[in-house]
Amino acid sequence: MRFFSLRQISRAVLLSMSASLALTLSAQAATIKPAKAQAPQANAVTAQDNVNRLTPANSTDGIIALVNENAILKSDLIDAITQAQARAQAAGEPIANSAQLQSEVLNALILRELQLSMVKRVGLNPDEAAINQRLGQIAQAEGTSISALQQRLDAAKPGSYAALRAQLIEDAAIQALQQRQIGNRVRISEQDIDAFLASPEAKRLNQSEYQTIHVRVPYMDDYSRLSEAQRNEALKVAEALRTRLLAPNVDVAEAVAASQGSYPIPLQGGDMGFHKAASLPTELSSEITKLEVGAVSAPLITPEGIDIIKLADKKASDTMLIPQWRTRHILVKVDELQTDALAEQKINDLYEQLRSGADFAGLASTYSDDPGSAGRGGDLDWVSEEDMIGPFEAMMKNTAVGDYSAPFKTQFGWHILKIEGKRQQDISDQYRRNMARQALYQRLAPQAKEDWLQELRAGAYIQVLG
């Protein structure tokens, strides 16, 4: 049986307490149910761990740690440990309540408290719409609506819905804070991008699509417990499969069935269809981009089994075309100086002037409240999909070239837009550079986050009392 690592538990408590809460809504209305007792071997802990283990039965609530001017209660720690165990249990990877687990979870709670204090200092406020969307996802997973979810939670335990919402707000604020802090620390230059694009790893960024055949010969047991004979048997099956897959126009299912023979564990995988390298797992994409069409890899030894990979076909593509619209717009803002009704009346007056033959650019220069485009007659240049918010993009796509839209509203106010052209633009180079920047960021971000959290803790007053 495989167990959750304590580092995984720590991260789960630090960033995903609301996820733990949501996973157990149907069971006890946001009250986490402790994991069931495991087999003696899975629950074995030292005698000292048993003495030190904090549980509801042996704890009177009180302060377990001081973090600057804030306190963490024993009940907070018990709840977090129970949530961590519930997550592990739900994943089929139980973890015992040991002194080491308590230390890891307490450390995560301390880091969370430090981050929440920083959130308050810098004034980060998560988007209300994003919180409602997350609540909607939780309700949908429970097969209900947000209002019904609220009624059910509060009926079972008053205040449960408010607690869940507050937890989601905290999680979103911490995530926004981390993105800001890590973004300030990770520096990626154009030279870094050039070097990455010149590396073998950059092959994953090309736009070609690969028809991949991926078959695994699973091991009969954990690799460390396999006998030499069992390992050789798995390798023999993999080599026989590789030989069959080398045949042109091979029927993959028949090749797999023929290679199965008397091997006791069913072979896994088959024809995966066409995928871009970037959408494949890193280990798989690094192998598939090396192969010529029709070639089959040598058996690849992994902890789970032996993999055989064949490149059945390839659709080469050196360009990435996207639609773009040359767009102008007029914005009438809604703010403390201009009510929604007044802004709507103003935009309707401008619309009537357009219908009477007025020049769009002239009206935008005179009346638009968008300081970035008003001086250019409302010109937004070429606009791509997802550059603009949803209502603006939808109207832009549904307006014919040379025409202007009816007035419409967004979170910024009231708009009229005009489409002056449409084109297919090749952004292959821009796409590759953006993807390279993202890959470099993902490589550097974890260490930057660890460094920042260590600095945050080092600069704080922390006293563990329990």
Can you describe what's shown?
- This protein is of the alpha+beta class.
- It has four domains: 6-185, Porin chaperone SurA, peptide-binding domain (Triger factor/SurA peptide-binding fold, Orthogonal Bundle); 187-202 and 427-466, no CATH class; 208-315, Chitinase A, domain 3 (Roll), CATH 3.10.50.40; 321-426, Roll (Chitinase A, domain 3).
- It is 49% helix and 17% strand.
- It has helices at residues 6-15, 17-23, 25-28, 40-43, 47-52, 74-90, 99-122, 128-141, 146-156, 160-185, 190-197, 228-245, 252-260, 282-288, 340-355, 360-367, 390-397, 428-458; strands at 63-67, 70-73, 209-218, 268-276, 300-301, 305-315, 321-333, 379-384, 408-410, 413-426, 462-464.
- A four-stranded antiparallel beta sheet has the order 4-3-6-5, sandwiched between helices. It has a four-stranded antiparallel beta sheet with strand order 8-7-10-9. A three-stranded antiparallel beta sheet has the order 2-1-11.
- Strand 1 (63-67) and strand 2 (70-73) form a beta hairpin.
- Helix 7 crosses helix 10 (160-185) and helix 10 (160-185) crosses helix 18.
- The chain is globular.
- The relative contact order is 0.10.
How large, in whole angstroms, is the Cα Rg? Answer: 29 Å
Overall pLDDT level = 83
Output the structural class.
Answer: alpha+beta
- The CATH topology of the largest domain corresponds to Triger factor/SurA peptide-binding fold
Termini separation (Å)? 32 Å
CATH class assignment of the largest domain: Mainly Alpha
User: Which CATH architecture of the largest domain?
Assistant: Orthogonal Bundle
The helix/strand series, from N terminus to C terminus, equals HHHHHEEHHHHHHEHHEHEEEHHEHEEHE
Tertiary shape = globular
CATH superfamily of the largest domain: Porin chaperone SurA, peptide-binding domain
The total count of helices amounts to 18
Tally of individual domains: 4
Strand content: 15-25%
Q: Largest sheet, order of strands side by side?
A: 4-3-6-5
Low-confidence stretches: 1-12, 14-52
Biggest beta-sheet profile: 4 strands, antiparallel
Strands, count: 11
Proportion in helices:
40-55%
